Amino acid sequence: TDRVEILRLDRDAIRATESDGTPEPDVVATVDAPVFYAETVERGKETWVVLSTAATTGLDSTAPPGARRQNPKTVEVLAASDRTGYGRWHRIAQFERSTPIGEYVSSIPTTNAYVFISWDPDLGLLLNPFNTTRDHGTILSIPPSWFETEVTEYAL
């Protein structure tokens, strides 16, 4: 499928509907690749959700027949806060998947690209891109102060 929905479901809605039906999640964003990692960041009175997508190889085999497409080569790290109801997403970083030899030699498997993410209150948001054209295996840090500003994109 062309877009992957990011859904929000309030925990109170789950409790409230246990006896009277299924709660309905809200679509707060869409991305063009599967979400691989998620992290929650608490800064003052604000809660942020940080997501990283994966750049998988080949065709999207999980899509229904007729909707399969070539997966994107871009891995993104995105963040949104509860202040906007998770409705305004910021691109923190973006990386391109490196071309694996498996795309040229059929007997060798292909590899996906990811950005592992972790939060440390002193160091900030730690990013570790894997199988990317730049910064592969390098631990990068987005300072905690980023989550206190209205920056729309962070340049690494």
Strand adjacency order, main sheet: 3-4-5-6
Mean of residue pLDDT? 83
Instruction: Tell me the Rg in angstroms.
Output: 17 Å
Overall helicity: under 10%
Distance N to C terminus: 30 Å
Q: Catalogue the unreliable spans.
A: none
Count of DSSP-assigned helices = 1
How would you characterize this protein structure?
The chain has 156 residues and is mostly beta strands. It has one domain. Helix content is 4%, strand content 38%. It contains 1 helix and 9 strands; from the N terminus they run E-H-E-E-E-E-E-E-E-E. The chain has one helix at residues 11-17, and strands at 4-8, 26-31, 35-43, 46-53, 74-81, 90-96, 114-120, 124-130, 140-142. The strands form 3 sheets. It has a 4-stranded antiparallel beta sheet, with no helix packed on it. A 3-stranded antiparallel beta sheet has the order 7-8-9, with no helix packed on it. The longest helix has 7 residues, at 11-17. The model has no long low-confidence stretch (mean pLDDT 83).
List the helices and strands and how they pair.
Layout: E1 4-8, H1 11-17, E2 26-31, E3 35-43, E4 46-53, E5 74-81, E6 90-96, E7 114-120, E8 124-130, E9 140-142
Antiparallel strand pairs: 1-2, 3-4, 4-5, 5-6, 7-8, 8-9
In summary, what is this structure?
This protein is mainly β.
Structural key phrases:
single chain; 156 residues; mainly beta; three-stranded antiparallel β-sheet; 9 strands
